[in-house]
């Protein structure tokens, strides 16, 4: 049985088709695209802009004539951040909804639960989550849009090294993303001459982490990195300032949303993080190759929904537009042909960077796609 969100998305898509297509085109069989997102629950600040972006751009694509002369039909399910539900919805998309491709998977945990379903069905799956294990090792039908947690570690360590810091205190969440980033940071730290002198964790429901931060304060750390997403980093940041810790604080790209700043309040000021250029689109030089794409998406999203843009919605934009391009280049809606075309994506300018995929790289971004940002006066700024 369809969820209310799914039903609403289908009705919205149908309305858009009615308005946008006439004559022979209106009778064309829709191309069904699936999405399983965490629109509610602890990862809602990720899933909500993803859902809104997909609905907005499916509507815009259909108003422009669809793909291969056919309308897109978006089938969305809300997993609430539950990996078991995500897998069930993935099976429903394959067995009942008969989608030709999937754009979704808000978190690393829900994505990993769904991968076997789409791999077994031979249906291309474009994930919107950050964990590196989504694409390493490569699964033939699985792709991802965001930068990996390993890349986040590398970008942060580059900045630490440039600032002369070599001793790091690490505090991470125990969920899928936090655990994965902790593992990646620990693995690559020696490459940058970084020694992790304190290593603390916290659970997804913890509302106070002062004991862990107190241990870090008592260590030889010269800077602190919080590896996590969701509400945990806001708790860490507030506790960090309450304890008066006078060390540089770094966050992951998992907090690249205005909601993090709102949750953390003034305590967020001074925190640094690697993120897509979308958050500073209007601050980029006119010659930046991403600027037009970023400004156009930011304007469209904020005009439609009256809320600040986030990098997470941007990943959904990248996913749906890469999928659209792949279907057009394949000249087919056959899942295998779409998969091959996604893998052949070259020079696609998206919100996360310029994508160049290969059979060995199902993400297609390099470290230059990340920008180091600092939160100043409650807003994003390029770090000096």
Automatic annotation (TrEMBL):
Secretion signal, residue range per the UniProt entry: 1-27
Keyword Ion transport in record: no
Residue stretches making up the Leucine-binding protein domain: 30-364
Pfam families membership: Peripla_BP_6 (PF13458)
Keywords: Amino-acid transport, Signal, Transport
Transmembrane intervals: none
Similarity comment text for this entry: Belongs to the leucine-binding protein family.
Protein name: ABC transporter substrate-binding protein
